[in-house]
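Anyone up for a design puzzle?
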């Protein structure tokens, strides 16, 4: 059987660049080489598509050290015609050479210009199959405000929140403060369109609000201010339909446990000496697990997701409250998404294969 050619795309222009690179390291090490030929393509911080070595060790998260994507003289040029799946490359001399004819793209991008429907639009224009959600679901899933709007329309519970734009904060700060005061304390101030908890602040006093907005608006010109919730932070992994199976949800849930008064910020997720740790599987009752899995499936389908997603919720005394839907979740071997599937009987390598088979079956 001939091998399928997979373009693994990682890096990107967002502040989650390094996490994307670390994800690529895990995938390059685990992908089934008997079935797939891999073409690694990095996106630099300034947006250049460049060829990268097929060497997982260069991109691995190790001892809390975030990996870096080296620039390359070999710039990758995407097909400009529908039906042409030939990647071409130039070394800067203007001459093009064929790099590979690809069958499917595996995007491992996080945040703006990668997870938000922009790169997905590029693949759609070129009619190239790719893993994951389409343009609309990717855009909605990245924007925390519109995620909540869609989830509410589907009858799912979300926490209380306010949306604040940079212009609103600059022109009418007193009005913004009044709106936020109604949420009580603590509140969490987040960039509306960023992930990996980049730019997130916990605000316990109104005097901290200005600094929190400075941090959030450094990432996006729209912020979400969410009321604090009392409950357990639970995550579930979802896969799209394969062979008519329908949407699949991990058989177990995971939990984020934070020590003290901290929260699950970027450092807690990826750096050593974290005040947070993950528990997989989470200790929940059978009744709770049934409801958690139902809500995760409903959230995935409400956004019209494809391929994969991680659904983050709070398990409160009043029920399940959906927090976010991550359409390209962290995918390193120690990330929650593959851990949940490992605990459900699907290993990391098989998980990658599953996603690639979904993509080629749906769009091939």
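Challenge accepted. My sequence:
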């Amino acid at each position: 059987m001939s091998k399928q050619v997979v373009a693994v795309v990682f890096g990107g222009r967002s502040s989650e660049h390094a996490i994307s690179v670390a994800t690529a390291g895990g995938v390059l090490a685990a992908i089934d080489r008997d079935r797939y030929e891999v073409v690694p393509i990095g996106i630099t911080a300034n947006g250049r598509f460049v060829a990268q070595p097929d060497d997982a060790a260069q991109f691995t998260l190790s001892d809390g050290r975030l990996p870096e994507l080296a620039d390359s003289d070999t710039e990758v040029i995407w097909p400009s015609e529908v039906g042409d799946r030939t990647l071409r490359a130039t070394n800067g001399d203007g001459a093009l050479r064929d790099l590979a004819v690809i069958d499917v793209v595996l995007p491992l991008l996080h945040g703006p210009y990668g997870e938000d429907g922009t790169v997905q639009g590029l693949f759609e224009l070129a009619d190239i199959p790719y893993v994951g959600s389409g343009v609309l679901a990717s855009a909605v899933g990245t924007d925390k405000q519109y995620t909540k709007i869609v989830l509410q329309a589907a009858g799912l519970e979300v926490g209380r929140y306010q949306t604040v734009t940079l212009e609103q904060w600059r022109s009418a700060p007193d009005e913004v403060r009044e709106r936020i005061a109604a949420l009580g304390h603590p509140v969490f101030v987040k960039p509306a369109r960023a992930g990996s908890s980049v730019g997130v602040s916990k605000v316990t006093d109104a005097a901290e609000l200005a600094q929190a907005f400075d941090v959030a608006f450094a990432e996006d010109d729209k912020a979400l201010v969410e009321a604090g919730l009392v409950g357990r932070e639970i995550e579930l992994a979802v896969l799209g339909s394969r062979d008519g199976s329908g949407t699949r949800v991990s058989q177990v849930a995971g939990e984020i446990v934070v020590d003290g008064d901290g929260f699950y910020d970027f450092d807690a997720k990826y750096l050593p000496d974290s005040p947070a740790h993950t528990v997989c599987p989470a200790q929940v009752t059978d009744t709770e697990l049934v409801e958690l899995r139902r809500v995760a499936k409903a959230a995935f389908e409400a956004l019209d997701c494809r391929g994969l997603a991680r659904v983050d919720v709070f398990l409160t005394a009043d029920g399940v409250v959906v927090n976010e839907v991550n359409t390209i979740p962290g995918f390193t071997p120690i990330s929650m998404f593959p851990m949940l599937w490992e605990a459900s009987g699907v290993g990391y390598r098989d998980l990658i294969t599953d996603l690639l088979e979904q993509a080629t079956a749906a769009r091939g």
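A detail worth pointing out: The chain has a mean pLDDT of 91.
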